[in-house]
Amino acid sequence: MAEALTIQEELAVQEFLEEVRKLDQHGPVVESRNTAVKFLMARKFDVSRAVELFQAYRSTRLREGIREIRPEEEPLQSELLSGKFTVLPYRDARGAAIALFTARLHRPDYTTHKAVLQAVIYQLDKAIESIQTQRAGLVFIYDMTNSTYENFDYELSMKILNLLKGAFPARLKCVFIVSSPLWFRASLAVLRLLVREKLRERVCTLKTHELPRHIPKESLPEHLGGSARYSHAAWIQACIRADRTSAAGDELSRDKPADGVAPRDHRCPLQGRTCTVAEPNADRFPQRLQGNYEEWDGSLLTAKSTVVGTDMGTKERRHGNGHVANGHGPGPARRSPHRSDAASSVPPRRKDPGEEGAGLEGGQTRPAYAWGCGRTSVPSVHVPDNEGMTVRELVEHVKKMKKKGIFREYEEIRKEPPAGTFNHSRKPSNQMKNRYSDVLCLDHSRVKLSVMDSDETSDYINASFMDGYKRKNAYIATQGPLPKTFADFWRMVWEQRALIIVMTTRVVERGRVKCGQYWPQEVGDSDTYGRFLVKNVHVRMFQDFRLSQLQVYDSVSGELRSVAHYLYVSWPDFGVPKSAGAMLDFRAQVKQHQEAAFRAMCADWTGPAGGPPLVVHCSAGIGRTGTFCALDICLSRLDDVGALDVQRTVRRMRTQRAFSIQTWDQYYFCFMAVLEYAQRRGLLPAIQWSDSE
């Protein structure tokens, strides 16, 4: 710590360390003077109270199974990147640090209490390295804006509150619950009864516009009524960098250091090997929060020490132009697939974030689906107009038209000629890259790859940009990759900086191959596709889909990125699902993940508002792919303006990806899915439909 202590405070530090060593001769010990000061500061150098606080802190961690905190490992890595919990780079008027929990980003069914608490403890540990934070304390904002009951986790809320007030070395000054919905009031009343009286007095609920009365506007982010901009990803990167120069490490998960040097594990992100290196003592985190993490250079959670000559330790294959090497065991010596520390320490070029709300009608602020980052929006073909239907008008339309009428409506769309030419798809050199000879890309909207080795044909892939609701190029609709196009597919994902891949077909259906196995399926496996090495680092199974967390390493640039792969498995082999519930849940999960992943890279993004495109594919890239995209567009518009137009949406989609929505029952499914969504949202009562309709 940079601040000198008085003689009495120094004596208190020694007494604290002696008392803590007596607690458990065989358990974790605290040798760090810095840690002792943190606990003593939190209790105004009252040794007995500081020891009690440490015991509560340690007991909480052990009770939740948090003996180690490794930010580079799943599921903690995803939890940190979600942006659900963060520490803002500014302070309140009295100098307290500001922690923010965004409720709508929390999905209790997709994470665990342990992972969330790990993320909270990890970030708060870094924040209280600042003397100012230790003295001025912490303000906690629980933002419930746009959250639903599904986002609320009562038990987790209690754990976080009790941690902050009675089991963490930070002075909790106040808890602000922002924009709490009506259903939360009963839960809040119970919470008030169960927490300590002092904490009860410090918990208050308020509206967003009231928050600047308690915290200066210049310290609050724009979505909470302030004027500050911040990068959560840059904050996490600051934490990771602090770890690399840390002498103290995580007190409950490390071994005792020798000669003032802390041994730390450096794990190469794709290789799974561990090498222990010694790092000199250094200050872990600057004393002032403000201005310390405004930028992010993209090396988040990936830049580790270099390890040369280690093998993958897993089954490795190469595809495309890469050399083929099958089998297990040691492979040839190779450089660790990550950025070097030297590269990651270079300050990034400062980006112009663009004007807030640019490209939106009437000067309104950017809505939630745009996610507030990137440059000025380019117009999309999907914008509100006077042709849309309200939900009740849509019900009347479906009742009036019935299934036969909806079928005729689709037939009119299907018979319309394509809105462009297919010259590039029909070139002899490109025809072999098309999975189906009659599913081609319109020239004006095709995704162009970078030309390789002056070969003009190397820029082709059967993939099309499609606009989303008020978002240009929100999707890339593409076919299921062929073995010969695996390398091209990953080149497209890399060049477009895609964060998520949505796959709506299984590899084999009804005995027919619908898509190639273009990603490593099992955890720990890695495949090489041209210049890209892809490793599966985490798999999570859900009832209707499978989520694989992939790490993609570019052997040319040495850069490593994370890509989420969603495989939807509940689409029946014949027809369409009887209920849209599973698809609606799937869409909600994908959108939430896309938003969180984009927020993590926001400071490093200079493209259109809303971030990189979502890569969506089935087999041909027009049927289920078109259905998923049409639903997303229609529901986004419904949420925004309370109206939608399925027919015009599909027509507009087809001007960018020809033949989108392949069958009439997929078209009809869009109507049924919208109505089911409206019922879920309470916009409609339950409706009974007969088969004759």
From TrEMBL:
Record-stated family: Belongs to the protein-tyrosine phosphatase family. Non-receptor class 3 subfamily.
Keyword set, alphabetical order: Acetylation, Cytoplasm, Hydrolase, Protein phosphatase
Cell location: Cytoplasm
One GO cellular component, as annotated: cytoplasm
Single annotated GO MF: protein tyrosine phosphatase activity
Lineage: superkingdom: Eukaryota
Pfam families linked: CRAL_TRIO (PF00650), Y_phosphatase (PF00102)
Protein's name in the database: Tyrosine-protein phosphatase non-receptor type 9
Annotated region (Disordered), positions in chain: 247-269, 312-371
InterPro entries, alphabetized: CRAL-TRIO_dom, CRAL-TRIO_dom_sf, CRAL/TRIO_N_dom, CRAL/TRIO_N_dom_sf, Prot-tyrosine_phosphatase-like, Protein-Tyr_Phosphatase, PTP_cat, Tyr_Pase_AS
The enzyme's E.C. designation: 3.1.3.48
Domain CRAL-TRIO: 73-232
Keyword Flavoprotein assigned: no
Protein's job: Protein-tyrosine phosphatase that could participate in the transfer of hydrophobic ligands or in functions of the Golgi apparatus.
Residue stretches making up the Tyrosine specific protein phosphatases domain: 584-668
SUPFAM superfamilies per the UniProt record, alphabetical: (Phosphotyrosine protein) phosphatases II (SSF52799), CRAL/TRIO domain (SSF52087), CRAL/TRIO N-terminal domain (SSF46938)
Species, as recorded: Paramormyrops kingsleyae
Biased composition range(s): Basic and acidic residues: 251-268
Cited SMART domains: CRAL_TRIO_N, PTPc, PTPc_motif, SEC14
Domain (Tyrosine-protein phosphatase): residue spans on this chain: 406-677
